Q: What sequence folds into this?
């Protein structure tokens, strides 16, 4: 009798131990963490993006309306899109999937100097003396980030990017449609907009984007990737 009672007590203890262990180690189900971004309000979407930026990059910004771009009257893009304006930073593009996965263009800020050097070397082949301002943007959700280890030409040849190139020369004879033809041949691996200016003093020419006078453009050309 005592042995039988002992077995019952042992079995009951084992059951409680297993149940207790299972209860303590139970992980939340996937559904408890699942995001349904379409159900969020605009303010919730903006807060979600800013929380991501704060946690991953240490800053927050002013988020535009977060919405899906309309492709046709009956179809929208799968991802939600927004831009973020933050202090001392370029305008950032952000794409968010229905499940809340975010793709951003913060990486471009660190890469702008290397991109400018890359285009500088290309233009030096055609222009003896000039100053240049460039800025590259990603127009659609990128499949990968551009890093210092990547081949810039390869990246621009495959990703949907657009580069604004403002070229300043002080010799009027240099500026011409012929020069634009030559530059187009150098740049036809990517999408770019070239603006050619003739200035009086190249050394004193400022290269801040806010100061550019669009009416002062001598020649311009839109280059499409072949």
A:
């Amino acid at each position: 009798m005592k042995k039988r009672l002992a077995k019952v007590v042992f079995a009951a203890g084992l059951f409680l131990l297993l149940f207790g262990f299972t209860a303590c180690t139970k992980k939340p189900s996937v559904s408890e963490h699942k995001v349904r971004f379409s159900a969020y309000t605009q303010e919730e979407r903006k807060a979600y993006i800013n929380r991501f930026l704060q946690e991953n990059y240490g800053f927050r910004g002013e988020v535009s309306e977060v919405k899906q771009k309309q492709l046709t009257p009956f179809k929208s893009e799968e991802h939600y899109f927004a831009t973020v304006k933050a202090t001392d930073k370029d305008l950032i593009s952000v794409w968010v999937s229905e499940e809340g996965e975010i793709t951003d263009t913060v990486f471009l800020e660190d890469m702008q100097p290397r991109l400018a050097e890359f285009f500088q070397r290309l233009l030096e082949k055609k222009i003896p003396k000039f100053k240049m301002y460039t800025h590259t943007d990603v127009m659609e959700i990128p499949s990968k980030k551009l890093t210092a280890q990547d081949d810039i030409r390869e990246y621009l040849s495959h990703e949907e990017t657009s580069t604004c190139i403002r070229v300043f020369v002080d010799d009027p004879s240099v500026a011409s449609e012929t020069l634009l033809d030559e530059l187009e041949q150098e740049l036809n691996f990517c999408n770019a907009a070239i603006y050619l200016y003739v200035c009086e003093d190249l050394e004193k020419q400022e290269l801040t984007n806010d100061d550019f006078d669009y009416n002062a453009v001598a020649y311009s050309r839109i280059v499409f990737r072949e």
Remarks:
- Confidence is low (pLDDT under 50) at residues 1-32.
- The longest helix spans residues 2-25.
- The CA atoms of residues 199 and 205 lie 7 Å apart.
